[in-house]
Amino acid sequence: MSKIAVFGAGGRAGRAAVGEARQRGHQVTAVVRDPAKYGDLAADGVHLLAGDVTDVNSVARVAQGHDAAISAVYDAGAQPEAFFTGAARALLDGLTRAGVGRLLVVGLASVLKTASGVALMDTPGYPQEYRSFYLGHAAGIETLRAATTELDWLVVSPAGDFDHGGVRTGRYWTAAAEATSRVSYADFAVALLDEIDTAKHHRAHLGIKAG
Question: Residue 131 belongs to a domain with what CATH number?
Answer without folding.
Answer: 3.40.50.720
